[in-house]
Amino acid sequence: LPMPGPGRHFAGTWLLVAVGSACHFLQEQSNQAKATKLQVAPQGAALDVSTFTKLDGICWQVRQLFRDTGIPGRFLLQAHGARWPVHVVVAETDYQDFAILFLERAQRLSVKLYARSLPVSDSVLSVFEQRVREANLTEDQVFFFPKYGFCETVDQFHILDEVQR
């Protein structure tokens, strides 16, 4: 049966384009940012999200569940070993080309721009910049991710499953 709601439209592959964040770690490590890809599958009203990225040249897959909150476009992520849950809000998307997500943990907000394909249009970038400003972040707190080197496959030994069953 087809899934009701936005989850079905949000399914598929997304590439991480940029992150707006006041996180100091990100600022210090921004030159080491790796191409990152999301694979999203609806699971009821929740989203099963796999993040693919490289660590020391090896592709890893991290599986997480964005839980339904009952509010469309709002999800809750209880990361493994994290003290605080992450509130995930789909701030803006056309489902076809781009998605802007707000992630909030313990009053700290970050803004992520994902695209179905690269490069993204100037109009999408300006919408993202506007959302970054709304989050009280500045341009020098925006980090762009590599446009190449995405993981194609992951072997079974490099899957981190954070989905609590």
Structure description:
There is one protein chain. This protein has an 8-stranded antiparallel beta barrel. Helices cover 15% and strands 43% of the residues. The model has no long low-confidence stretch (mean pLDDT 89). The protein is globular and about 40 Å long. With 165 residues, it is mainly beta. The protein has helices at residues 6-10, 24-29, 122-134, and strands at residues 12-20, 37-43, 46-55, 58-68, 74-77, 86-93, 98-105, 108-115, 142-144, 159-161. The protein starts with 5 loop residues before the first helix and ends with a strand. The protein has a single domain (6-161), classed as Lipocalin, CATH 2.40.128. InterPro entries: A1-microglobln, C8G, Calycin, Lipocln_cytosolic_FA-bd_dom. It comes from Jaculus jaculus.
Kindly list the characteristics that best describe this protein.
165 residues; Lipocalin; eight-stranded antiparallel beta barrel; 3 helices; globular; disulfide bond; signal; secreted; Calycin
